[in-house]
Amino acid sequence: MNSQQLISTCKAFCLEGTLKEVTPLGNGLINDTYLAQTAEADLPDYVLQRINHAVFTDVELLQHNIEAVTAHLRHKLEAEGIGDIDRRVLRFMPTPQGKTYHFDGQNYWRMSVYIPRTLTIDEVTPQSAYACGMTFGHFEQQLTDLKEPLGETIPDFHNMELRLSQLKQAVAADRAGRVATVGPELDLIAQHAGQMALAEQLHRQGRLPKRICHCDTKVNNMLFDQEGKEVLCVIDLDTVMPAYVFSDYGDFLRTAANTVAEDWPELADVDFRWDVFEAFTRGYLQSAASFLTPVERSHLPFAAMLFPMMQAVRFLADYLNGDTYYKTSYADHNLVRTRNQLRLFRQVLARRQDMEQFVESC
Fold first, then answer.
1. Residue 246: which of 350, 344, 123, 140 has the closest Cα?
2. Short-list 184, 151, 225, 198, CA closest to 304
3. Beta-strand (E) ranges in the chain?
4. What value does the mean pLDDT of the chain take?
5. Angle at 269 between CA 266 and CA 273, to 5 degrees
6. Three-class secondary structure of residue 91 per DSSP
7. CB–CB of 246/299 below 8 Å?
8. CA 48 to CA 58: how far, in whole Å?
C-alpha cells in the first residue's frame, strides 16, 4: 500500500491533527507497522499496525485483552500520581464505532499514540537483562488484581503436553520421510518428556496458577527513555494472556541466555550465559516477590530448562512435517535449530542445582 492508501486507512480512527505522511516503522516479524505523522507540532503522531490475523485469528479477543490491560495499567499509574502517563502505557485510538480496530474487508488495523524520544535495546547484557527482569516482573505484579477476564490470543501457546502430542503425531505420519534420521534427538526428548510436562500436571493439581503474563519477554519489548537509562513502558502486547509465570521467565532465558542464535550450527558454541541468568533472575524476583507462590518460585529453574526443550520439540515436529510452519533457509534448518535447543537444554540441565541455590539465595 502507498502512503495515500495508508492515510486513508488511518482516517478510519478518531485522530487529532492532519495526517501528512505514513512510513514503515521497525522490522517486526508478525505485524506490519507504520509511523503516521501529523502536520501539527503540538499534536501526537501515531503508530498504524496491520494485524496478522493468520496468527491472531480472534482480533476481537486480541483487542479486548489489550484494552483491558492498558486501562488497568493506566488506572494504576493515575492512582500512584505518576505524570505523563501516555509515555508509560500504550494508548489505542477508537473508531467512530468505539472499537480499537478497523476491518477494511481484507485486513485488520489498529492505531496507537506514538511515544517520542524513546528507544529500544537489542543487546543482551547483565544490565539489560536485569532491567527486563524488573520490568516484566512488575508488569505481572500490576496485573494480579485485574478483574476483567482475558482469553488466550494463541490457545495452548506454551502447553508442553500439546507440543509433545504434536511431535508424536509428526513421527507417526513421517510426511517428509525424515524420522529415521533423527533417532538421537527423539531419544533425548523421550528421556525427559515426562518431567517436561510438569507445569500442566501442577496446574491440574491446583498448585500452579495461571496469571496475566506478557508471553514475549524480549529485551526489545521494553521502551527506554532516549538516554537508555529508564524503562518507560512495556510494548508488543499481542500475547498478553493467562499463562504460567514460567512463560515470561523461561522464554526470556531461552533466547537471551544462549551464547549464540537459536539456529547456530556449531553446537560446541552453544552455552548458557550465567551472567544473564543471575541478572534477570535477581530483577525478576525483586519485582515479583509480592505475588509469587513457593511453587512458582522454586520451579523457576525448571522453567529455564522447559523452554529450550519445548522449542526443540516444536522445531523437530516441523522438520518431520516438511517445514510447514517456520521459515527455513535451507533443507535442514529446522534440524539445526532442534539440535541447538537440545544442546542448550543440556547446558541448563547441568546447572539446575546451581540455579536452585541461586534462586533460594535471592
1. 140
2. 198
3. 19-24, 32-38, 46-51, 102-103, 108-113, 118-119, 211-213, 222-225, 231-234, 241-243
4. 95
5. 145
6. coil
7. yes
8. 19
What is the dihedral angle through the alpha carbons of 132, 69, 149, 302, rounded to the nearest 10 degrees?
0
Read off the amino acid at residue 107: N
Residues near 94 by beta carbon (within 8 Å), at least 6 away in sequence: 13, 14, 100
Inform me whether the pLDDT recorded for 338 exceeds 80: yes
- Report which residue type is found at 178: R
Nearest CA-CA partner of 154 in 59, 220, 67 = 59
Instruction: Name the 3-class secondary structure at 143.
Output: coil
**Least confident stretch, 28-42, 51-65, 247-261, 324-338:** 28-42
Cell of 186: 527423539
pTM of the model: 0.92
Cell of 321: 512435517
Q: What is the pLDDT of residues 89-143, one digit of tens each?
A: 999 999 999 999 999 999 999 999 999 999 999 899 999 999 999 999 999 999 9
CB atoms within 10 A of CB 73: 21
Q: Are strands 118-119 and 222-225 parallel, antiparallel or unpaired?
A: antiparallel
Question: Using one digit for the tens of pLDDT, what is the confidence trace for 166-216?
Answer: 999 999 999 999 999 999 999 999 999 999 999 999 999 999 999 999 999
User: Which residue, among 323, 316, 349, 326, has the nearest Cα to 186 in the 3D structure?
Assistant: 316
**Sequential DSSP letters for 168-223:** HHHHHH-TTS-GGG-HHHHHHHHHHHHHHTHHHHHHHTT-S--EEE-S---GGGEE
State the DSSP H helix or E strand holding residue 73, giving kind and residue range, or none if neither. Answer: helix 59-79
The set of cell numbers assigned to 151 is: 482469553
